[in-house]
Design a protein that fits this description.
128 residues, seven-stranded mixed beta sheet, 2 helices, 7 strands, 27% strand, globular
Length: 128
């Protein structure tokens, strides 16, 4: 019993943490019954907000709570890894100007959430 080496989380606990984080984010930011956040854009989900930078940071922090965080190699964001291999990537700068993004990749399928989704944050009134 107990943990050996890095972290002290089991994959089950990590997935449970991620599921709880996603449920809290869905309550605050809105999600479809199938677990996709807010509304559909051209190639991703879109959350419209008066302050995309601040809102995306809050969203990422909520989803990544309990994960192992690293800065992206290009320095333009961060990634949080869960013990089960799921990851949440926060990109401050994307190819869409002024639209930070959070990408969610869930390693353990099922559980009522999609295995992958990307959420862009845009200023209210901008098109997605």
């Amino acid at each position: 019993m107990g943990s050996h080496g890095g972290g002290g989380h089991t994959a089950g606990n990590s997935l449970g943490q991620l599921l709880g984080n996603m449920a809290r984010a869905a309550t605050e930011f809105g999600a479809s019954p199938s677990g996709y956040f807010d509304m559909r854009g051209k190639n991703s989900r879109v959350i419209q907000t008066p302050d995309p930078q601040r809102t995306s940071e809050r969203f990422w922090k909520m989803l990544s709570a309990g994960g192992r965080v690293r800065v992206l190699p290009n320095g333009k964001g961060r990634v949080a890894w869960c013990a089960d291999g799921s990851r949440i990537v926060y990109r401050v700068k994307t190819s869409t100007k002024g639209s930070p993004a959070v990408e969610i990749k869930v390693s353990t399928p099922g559980h009522g959430i999609p295995p992958s989704q990307k959420v862009h944050f845009i200023s209210k009134g901008a098109s997605g």
